């Protein structure tokens, strides 16, 4: 994987930064929580698998998995208003 990402590390680092900001904003606002929590899980797995020695990412991983399973954002957040109008597969 290093020979694929190493030449493009500025692009990859910008993508990880932008996605991390979007995950954080999504969790704060409560909008598209499941979708962005799934992206956050992949970011956490990236840092865990590639040897970042911080246990904080394991905690974030567990929190994001809990948010995905519980369907967070649908009672206190913008997802409440979104899903109230668009009932269907996700509700």
Q: What does the model show?
A:
The chain is mainly α and 91 residues long. Helix content is 71%, strand content 0%. The protein contains 5 helices and no strands. Helix 2 crosses helix 3 (33-49) and helix 3 packs antiparallel against helix 4. The chain is elongated. The relative contact order is 0.13.
Our count of helices gives: 5
Overall geometry: elongated
CA-based gyration radius? 15 Å
Order of helices and strands: HHHHH
The largest sheet is: none
Key attributes of the depicted protein:
91 residues; elongated
Provide a quick synopsis of the model.
The protein is mainly α and 91 residues long.
Topology:
Blueprint: H1 2-5, H2 9-29, H3 33-49, H4 56-70, H5 78-85
